[in-house]
Write a structure and sequence with these properties.
Chain B: It comes from Ranatra chinensis. Chain B: Belongs to the STXBP/unc-18/SEC1 family. Chain B: This is Vacuolar protein sorting-associated protein 33A. Chain B: InterPro entries: Sec-1-like_dom1 (IPR043154), Sec-1-like_dom3a (IPR043127), Sec1-like (IPR001619), Sec1-like_dom2 (IPR027482), Sec1-like_sf (IPR036045). The complex is a heterodimer. By secondary structure, chain A is α+β, with helices and mostly antiparallel strands. Chain A has a domain of 71 residues. Chain A has 30 helices and 29 strands. In chain A, helix 4 crosses helix 7. Chain B is globular. The chains are: A alpha+beta, B alpha/beta. Chains A and B meet through helix 17, helix 19, helix 21, helix 23 and helix 24 of A and helix 5, helix 7, helix 8, helix 14 and helix 16 of B.
């Protein structure tokens, strides 16, 4: 069995192997004419866009408009659409699997992988004017970039298609002929273009004013560079000239790693890297793998083929099959190589013998015993690198077998690999068609793989993987699904809303607002409103409802939330966008809205406030408004008028007590005005009590008595006041007089108290006999 | 500064830590040195969560109050405004920024709202053209502040007025948010009970907010929450508090656990930590960090003297003990104990002085007469007549708030005043204190504190069924909660007492409870599967307390120190299986409660 596993290995030098194995039989057999079409694919097992190859003459069919068809890596049809825009110069995939179609006029039209048009951006006016003759899509630190070459042989590029900012690169010197080859490289955020004109090679750097010539020697006297390729990690460069010489070296061309003569003067169809290990040249119907040393390896195909560069391998797509060429990962090599004495290899043998119930298992185990941990680790890791599930199983079984002989082996890596393998096998399956390798997964991360699944609308698989890998937060998957769901215009809004709510539930991190926004963007306002209902956070609901012009719903939601700030926001929004009368009618049925609006008016608009109270027949509140007015400093001199109004309102409200009190206050004000003239003292606005006190202090006893009678001041209070004023005036004769007028309603104890408080013991004695008997002793003590 | 918060059954310092973290996260967002401009009411509250030195460590160079007028010139580039979401404060901020621009200073401005941003305020800033000046605008979601190891307050002035007079439920939303904060710290509270319209609304909002995504700890430390709407019990705040802490509050006002007293009354020279000297005033922090205060705060004032004098004896005997100490070792032990003994002595001196200050007032005839009237009203004596004492208070122009407090109390105990009586009081007040107070009276009527007599005599019924008045109880060695007011046992506390006695007590009392506003709420909150109840979890510290239930009492509309003392008394009873944690919208007393309802049309001339 071990020998079988190495059947697809090709030895390369003494100790290296390349393997070429099939991952899919293509489903598209019979659907496409392989020789007359052009392919576009991308890394991480990306989908394949197929369109008519313009360089080839074919019989026109139908309308003559080209058709763009998109297949998965397994050749399963995904979508197709008729190209009805301008002439396409080049196509490419962005990192989030949007198909970028670059037109002759520099417009970049973006489609998703289901053939839905997204949007367009341009490569600038100059590119549009001078026409584009070639374009390249490249991966940059900011995502995916696009570079175009114009008929004037200038290069324009954007570093990110998400935020396209067009930059012009410096001009290459020399005669004005098109480059014999050009290539965009973008290591570490700085993009530049390698521009070859015959033998000359220039670097056009972003931001520089002139091109930088690069020195490179491909051996021969006169040649022309015809193709260039850069490895996916932007570490290595490959240059091919028309004499069949291939140069391999560092990206900065300072270090030459190899100069190889292919002895082939024909024009290669493709030059791509196979990881960082080798270069693969597509010569039409056969391919040549050239590494940094040793002879090249040739593979012959009967028909034409198409190569896709990956970070660790090269994919070979033909009409019938989809294959991977990869340098055998060292751990796999260690285990399966013939005569290997790696621990993993022994462990694998031990495990096989054990399954055969052979005693030799023990012998093998003995051999590996000191390095058992390494052996287990090797088996686990090797399992990741193989595609065949049988081999995976075999290796994992060996690891499991070895693990049982280890005392302190953490099962973590083993369990993790089991899970990862399951996920890898699932996404590699024919139906999904993502032939991603273990190394690619490590570059891509699980999150990245999930994103790829979501873009492919494989929501169920993504969910299952999330569950399986114990990724707690599934809200992203669900939200993605929901956003896709709302676009399905064929399904009724109620059903969609219900389905979404059923699936998403009250998941943390799910933003119904975002989904609703998406629905609104698709023109499905009613669905959006339905979805907003599920949003638990009113602070998110309300602004969106207002945006959708659902004012009433916004108001109700705001009120339900209890968040008064939201209610105010809606109220002010309504007030600005509605006729006043309608606005007032609208809110008067909603008590909280009314109350808050009243509160707002109290601070901002007193007149409106009165309008509202008037409408509501709230006369008490109106009266209070008038009373406030009468005290307002802005309203000086008009106080009485406001009070009259207040009195009238109290009467209407049948609040007789308050009406009478208003009336008394008006009367008092009148008296105070008169007194103010007489005494020239500030009096208006003071209380009746203060007024009486003033009169008593001024010895206007008669007038005070009259005022007191007019306003029905109770005896007790009047007497207390009199005593107090007398004390203040130091007029003890008046006190005596008062004691004789009539019987005191407050008793005579206060008489004594007031005398004592001014230290008039002699005066105090006068009233002692009138003190109640039970208090006499106390007062005797007080007087000492 | 935190240790006095962590002593209780529920660790309140978690709240402090959380809020501190939130504050500093925001401050750190603004790189470099910075000045902070605080809305005035926030300054003492921030003192409850972070120290000045903490702020300095975070590169806060200076702090100012948010006032009218420009900032003092400063070279610091970052200005952080920390403000309440109120429109007039926004205007002040806008003015300050305009002024800085006029001066040509390029400043980085940041604005943080406590407890959360408001679109209304942001709109105002936009219309003033300064909203774009802010680099960061964010929330500082501190709804509720840690006061003591069993006490938290939201310090919302006027919450009761807002809801019951202006119909503005903003404060309830904030209370619900505060409750969510507490749940996110201490776990979902399995049982929710309460009484009153505000309680109903808050529960409604809490269940609504619970649907928002939020993380909760895995175990519930609090077993039950009890929402008490102040409108259910308007009597208790009106009664004079007779506990030590209550009296300090009644007579000298405790603000954010700090009381300011005239400095000349205290013997100078000692620089104890919890006192800060201002020329004429001494600020004393009152919390359980001080052992002596923790012991006497909840006692009836009449019992405080005994404790103080026995403490005095103890300390002097300890200090005197050195004469008999012989061996070197004993002397060394004595010296080791000396600092703590000196601290105890200092604190004893402080509280003795405070007690003296209180005694000066409580011995006065005015105080005693009012208290007597209060107690007679509580006992239902002559509640339907015009009270001569109230008339005398008016005649002597005693503070209006005192008069209103007595009248409101009469209205409550008589289940409303006779129209003639009410009219008489009204006229008396307007004639003596001025007509402008008609609006205050109207507010009191709207709030239900003053009302016309009703057919049902609800107070009489409540007094009998719930034993609101108890006459034969020792103030020194009390056996019932009524000791906090000497005669009257707070209605709110009686309700709580009933509820904890048996869970179904409220249902049995439903006839009586129907006399109080609002429905009874009693719900259980579903705990997510992964959350276990507190039983058997690690949090319990001693096995004896294993069966103790922790109840969070949340007063909506404020609570008094006397009520807090009564609750503490309840959980200290031997047979008690309940510990209380208290949260309130504001710490109030009769004066501050009535004052919050007044309409200051004309500035008071005292």
């Amino acid at each position: 069995m071990t020998t079988l596993l190495t059947a697809d290995w090709c030895q390369h030098g003494k100790d290296e192997y390349f393997r070429k194995f099939e991952v899919y039989m293509m489903e598209w057999v019979g659907e496409i004419k392989f020789d007359t079409v052009a392919f576009t694919s991308t890394q991480f097992g990306g989908p394949i866009a197929v369109t008519r190859d313009k360089t080839k003459v074919v019989k026109v069919q139908g309308t003559g408009k080209p058709l763009i068809t998109i297949y998965t890596a397994s050749g399963t049809f995904l979508s197709s659409f008729v190209w009805s825009s301008g002439r396409v110069t080049e196509m490419g995939w962005s990192s989030n699997l949007d198909l970028l179609c670059i037109q002759e006029d520099g417009a970049v039209l973006i489609y998703d992988m289901f053939g839905n048009y997204q949007h367009t951006f341009g490569m600038g006016q100059e590119a549009q004017d001078t026409k584009v003759i070639a374009a390249q899509v490249f991966s940059s630190a900011m995502g995916t970039g696009v570079a175009v070459l114009t008929t004037t042989h200038r290069v324009f590029l954007v570093n990110s298609v998400k935020e396209p900012k067009v930059k012009m690169l410096p001009e290459a010197p020399g005669v004005n002929v098109p480059p014999s080859a050009w290539l965009v490289v973008c290591p570490e955020r700085h993009s530049r273009v390698l521009f070859a004109r015959g033998k000359e090679l220039y670097s056009l750097n972003e931001g520089d004013s002139r091109a930088v010539p690069l020195n490179i020697d491909l051996g021969a006297d006169s040649y022309s560079i015809i193709n260039m390729a850069v490895s996916s990690t932007y570490d290595y460069l490959a240059i091919l000239n028309n004499r069949g010489k291939l140069w391999l070296g560092s990206l900065d061309v300072r270090k030459t790693l190899r100069l190889f003569d292919t002895w082939n003067l024909s024009l290669p169809k493709q030059l791509v890297w196979c990881g960082n290990d080798a270069v693969v040249i597509n010569w039409g119907s056969d391919i040549e793998v050239i590494a940094f040393s040793e002879d090249s390896i040739r593979f012959n195909y009967d028909s034409s083929l198409f190569l896709v560069q990956e970070v660790d391998c090269t994919r070979v797509i033909t009409l019938q099959s989809h294959e991977i060429i990869q340098k055998v990962p060292s751990v796999v090599k260690e285990i399966f190589r013939i005569n290997s004495n790696a621990p993993g290899s022994y462990l694998l043998d031990a495990s096989k013998q054990f399954q055969k119930k052979s005693h030799r298992a023990n012998e093998y185990l003995h051999l590996v015993k000191p390095k058992l941990f390494t052996a287990v680790t090797q088996c686990v890791e090797a399992a990741g690198h193989v595609f065949s599930s049988d081999t995976q199983k075999m290796l994992m079984k060996a690891a499991q077998f070895g693990k049982t002989f280890l005392d302190d082996c953490s099962p973590e890596t083993y369990v993790m690999m089991c899970r990862v393998l399951r996920c890898l096998n699932a996404v590699r399956s024919r139906q999904i068609g993502i032939p991603v390798t273990y190394i690619q997964l490590q570059v891509l991360t699980v999150g990245g793989l999930m994103d790829l699944l979501l873009i492919r609308r494989q929501y169920y698989l993504a969910l299952e993987i999330a569950k399986f890998l114990k990724i707690p937060d599934k809200s992203k998957i669900l939200s993605h699904w929901a956003c896709y769901k709302v676009k399905q215009t064929s399904i009724g809004k109620d059903q969609i809303a219900r389905e979404i709510a059923d699936k998403l539930g009250r998941n943390e991190g799910v933003s119904y607002t975002a989904i609703a926004m998406k629905a609104a963007d698709c023109g499905r306002t009613e669905l959006a409103i339905k979805l907003i209902d599920y949003e638990p956070r009113a602070t998110k609901q309300v602004p969106l409802l207002l945006r959708l012009k659902e004012d009433k719903a916004a108001l109700i939601k705001a009120i339900d939330s209890g968040n008064t700030d939201l209610v105010f926001t809606v109220l002010l929004h309504l007030k600005e966008n509605m006729q006043m009368a309608r606005f007032q009618m609208e809110i008067r049925n909603i008590p909280l809205a009314q109350a808050l609006y009243i509160k707002y008016c109290q601070q901002h608009n007193r007149e409106t406030l009165k309008d509202i109270y008037d409408q509501e027949d709230n006369h008490n509140a109106l009266a209070e408004c008038f009373i406030r007015d009468s005290y307002s400093p802005r309203n000086s001199g008009m106080g009485e008028a406001s009070l009259v109004a207040a009195q009238e309102m109290y009467k209407r409200a049948k609040n007789d007590v308050n009406a009478a009190l208003c009336e008394e206050q008006l009367r008092l004000l009148k008296v105070q005005h008169a007194l103010e003239e007489k005494f020239g003292k500030d009096l208006v606005g003071k209380s009746l009590h203060e007024t009486l006190k003033l009169l008593l202090t001024k010895n206007e006893i008669k007038q005070a008595d009259k005022l007191r009678a007019d306003f029905k001041v109770p005896d007790r209070r009047y007497w207390w006041l009199r005593l107090k004023v007398i004390g203040e005036k130091d007029n003890w004769a008046e006190l005596e007089k008062l004691s004789r007028v009539k019987k005191s309603p407050i008793g005579y104890e206060p008489f004594v108290d007031v005398c004592l408080s001014y230290d008039k013991k002699y005066e105090a004695q006068k009233y002692l006999p009138k003190i109640k008997d039970e208090l006499k002793v106390k007062y005797l003590v007080k007087m000492g | 500064m935190t240790n006095h918060l962590s002593g209780g059954k529920v660790n309140i310092s978690l709240l402090q830590d959380l809020e501190k973290k939130q504050l500093f996260e925001l401050i750190l967002k603004c790189g470099g040195p910075k000045v902070i401009v605080w809305a005035e009411d926030l300054v003492p509250l921030v003192g409850l969560i972070a120290k000045n030195t903490d702020l300095n460590e975070h590169d806060v160079r200076k702090m100012f109050f948010l006032e009218h007028g420009p900032l003092p010139p400063t070279t610091v580039k970052n200005i952080i405004f920390i403000s309440r979401p109120r429109l007039h404060l926004m205007d002040m901020i806008a003015d300050i920024i305009h002024e800085e621009e006029r001066r040509g200073n390029r400043k980085e401005c940041h604005l943080f709202f406590v407890p959360r941003r408001s679109q209304l305020c942001e709109k105002r800033l936009q219309s003033k053209g300064v909203f774009g000046n802010f680099t960061f605008v964010d929330d500082l979601p501190c709804d509720i502040f840690p006061f003591d190891n069993d006490l938290m307050s939201m310090e919302m002035e006027g919450a009761f007025k807002e809801y019951y007079v202006e119909n503005d439920p903003s404060c309830l939303y904030q209370a619900a948010q505060a409750l969510m904060t507490l749940q996110s710290l201490y776990g979902i509270i399995p049982r929710v009970t309460g009484k009153g319209p505000a309680a109903e609304r808050v529960w409604d909002l809490v269940s609504r907010l619970s649907q928002e995504p939020r993380k909760f700890p895995t175990n519930s430390q609090i077993d039950q929450v009890l929402l008490i709407d102040r409108a259910v019990d308007l009597i208790s705040p009106l009664a004079t508090q007779l506990t030590f802490e209550g009296l300090i509050d009644e007579l000298f006002e405790i603000k954010n656990m700090v009381v300011r007293l005239p400095a000349d009354k205290f013997s100078g020279g000692d620089d104890s930590q919890n006192k800060i000297m201002v020329p004429d005033e001494l600020q004393i922090t009152l919390n359980s960090a001080d052992e002596l205060f923790a012991e006497i705060r909840d006692k009836n004032f009449n019992a405080v003297g005994t404790v103080l004098s026995s403490k005095a004896k103890l300390i002097s005997s300890q200090l005197g003990a050195r004469r008999t100490d012989q061996t070197v070792q004993e002397i060394k032990q004595f010296v080791d104990r000396l600092p703590s003994m000196m601290a105890a002595k200092r604190s004893l001196a402080t509280y003795t002085t405070i007690a003296e200050l209180i005694k000066n007032v409580t011995d006065s005839t005015e105080f005693l007469d009012s208290l007597q009237l209060e107690q007679e009203l509580m006992l239902g004596v002559d509640t339907d007549r015009v009270q001569a004492h109230i008339e005398d208070c008016i005649a002597h122009q005693q503070p209006l708030v005192k008069v209103l407090r007595l009248i409101c109390l009469q209205s409550a105990t008589n289940s409303g005043l006779k129209p003639k009586v009410l009219e008489h009081y009204k006229r008396e007040i307007l004639q003596t204190y001025g007509f402008q107070h008609i609006l205050t009276l109207s507010n009191l009527e709207v709030a239900g504190l003053l009302k016309m007599q009703q057919s049902s005599r609800s107070y009489t019924v409540l007094r009998k069924t719930l034993r609101l008045t108890v006459e034969d109880n020792s103030e020194v060695m009390p056996s019932d909660v009524n000791y906090v007011h000497s005669v009257y046992a707070p209605l709110s506390v009686r309700l709580i007492q009933q509820l904890i006695k048996s869970p179904s007590a409220w249902r049995q009392l439903s006839d009586v409870l129907a006399l109080l506003p609002g429905r009874i709420i009693d719900h259980s909150q579903q705990l997510p599967n992964y959350i276990q109840k507190r039983r058997g979890s690690i949090s319990s510290q001693s096995s004896q307390n294993e069966n103790t239930k922790i109840v969070l009492v949340f007063f909506l509309g404020g609570c008094t120190f006397a009520e807090i003392s009564a609750l503490r008394f309840l959980s200290q009873q031997e047979d008690s299986k309940v510990e209380f944690v208290i949260a309130t919208t504001k710490l109030i007393n009769g004066n501050s409660f009535i004052n919050s309802l007044t309409e200051p049309l004309v500035p008071d001339h005292k």
